[in-house]
Amino acid sequence: MASASQPDAPGGTQVSFPGNDLSVAWLLAAAAVLLEMLTNGRYGYFRDELYFLACSDHLAWGYVDFAPLAALLLRISRFLLGDSLHAIRTLPALAEGTQIVITGLIARELGGKRFAIFLSCLSVLLAPVILGNATRFSMNPFEPLFWMGSVYFLVRAINRDQPRLLLAAGVLSGFGLENKHSTAFFLVSLTIGLLLAPSRRLLLSKWFWFGALLALLIFLPNLIWQYTHHFPTLEALRNVRKTHKNIELPPLPFLRQQIMMLLPVSAAVWIPGLGFLLFGSKAKRYLSLGITYLLFLAMMMKLHGKDYYLAPIYPMLFAAGGVFWETAIAAHTRMRWLKVALPAAVLALGVIAVPLNIPILPVEKIVPYMNALGIQMSRTEVEDHGPLPQHFGDEFGWEEMVAATAQLYYSLPPDERLRTGILAGTYGDAGAIDFFGPRYGLPKSISPHQNYYYWGPREYTGGSLILLHYELADAQRGCQSVQIGTTLNNPYAMQEEHYTILVCRGSKIPLAEAWPRLKVWN
Question: Is the pTM of this model over 0.90?
Answer without folding.
Answer: yes
